[in-house]
Amino acid sequence: MSNPKTKPSEMHCSGPRNFGPGSRRSFMRLGLAGFASMSLPGIMRLQAASPLPTQTADGKARKKTAVIMVWQPGGNSHIDTYDPKPLSGSEYRGPFNTIPTKVPGMRFTELLPRQAAIADKFTVLRSMYQGAGGHPAGSMQLLSGDSDTRDKPKPRLPDWMSVANYLRSKEGPRTNPLPAYVGVNPPLQYNGPAYLGDAYSPFSVTGDPNSPKFVVPNIGLTDANQVARLGRRTTLRQQLDTLERSFDHFGEMEALDEFETQAMTLLTNPKTKDAFDLTQEDDRTRDRYGRNAWGQQLLLARRLVEAGVEVLTSSLRGPLCGRVNNWDDHAVNHHIFDALRFRADAYDQAVTALIEDIYERGLDERVMVVVTGEFGRTPKISHQPSTGAGNASAPSGTKQPGRDHWPRAFSNIWAGGGIETGRFIGATDKRGEDVVERRCGPGDFLATIYHHLGIDSKSVFIEDFNGRPTPIVDHGAPIPELMG
Question: Whole-angstrom distance between the N-terminal and C-terminal Cα of the chain?
Fold first, then answer.
């Protein structure tokens, strides 16, 4: 793993309080603990307990914008995909040829022919960097803006997805029965809501959407007996007389009824069932995304944002990655070049279909798509013995090539969001080791996403566990080329 040269202070490119045990919020948490199997009403109540209003940059009512973040856990090799260095020498460049894209002067490697053919529909940011070399700290830097370079067991700051969910919940009751924030196999290993609380975590959908047995439990219930049982279970007045008296003391019974109604609507409204039902897509569309987990995850992501979900994350992990189920292509894990070949077709096809669909269905102004990992991979190839045989990995003990963690330079792609596409931003040096043009850090990444969501990242503060107002971004600014 590399030691980054950059300092956290150099990152630039151009909640609610934790109330005490006797408070209303903690009382609600304790009192609703018995409803773990029916968490949505509790989530909605917790979301309503915090009074911070949403702020926007121009003070106007925000547009119903949305973001889909496609996450590459472990870090994609920029050298072998979006930022090839064919003249860098055999120790660096890898075995892949480069190919032209639809954008003059922009070349990818041969692994991405479909994306190369639609490169006019997205922009490549080749000058990203951050200051942490480990997966936990790197993920926290990019997704929450935490400048700490140390790996921590849990996040100190909430990620942008939870912040957006929190701020949007302050705008009043949702008229759409779908949750504002959904994760389709979301990236939750190192990130989360931190001091905002679990109420602002995603509605998580797990499993393989390509499986014939795939189902989202309790969504869009149609069986009358199930609905009746659900209604009985969520009627607090019938089951918790003592809690009723306590909540009456705080004048909240009317609010509880409102949130229970919202939760019941989510669980029983036919619209929710339809949004999660991939069988409603024709075979041609499903084939275009790819009949595999990644393809169907991103198709589901498109369906959900089209139906009104505003924050959608999907992590491309699992068997399609290779033996270790992620993009962490150390030589001990994978033969990196075999791993990239192994996953390239499914990745290229799914991302291409998603971007094409966003434009073909007229979602490109409202929906922004971001595809990224926490960092890149070392430009210099290493060789180490494999620790085990499997897809994209030779038998244990066999020396094979790999690339290690590299936060000093990496690439990501951006589409939709009303941005001007068909170009690339920034550049790295001749080996892809360091950014030499338009250096962009985590603060810029986050501010750009917040800008699309109508959130003025410079002026929004949320109280942390200690009641201290904390900025949602304390460095950086929206990247001008990525502002719609």
Answer: 36
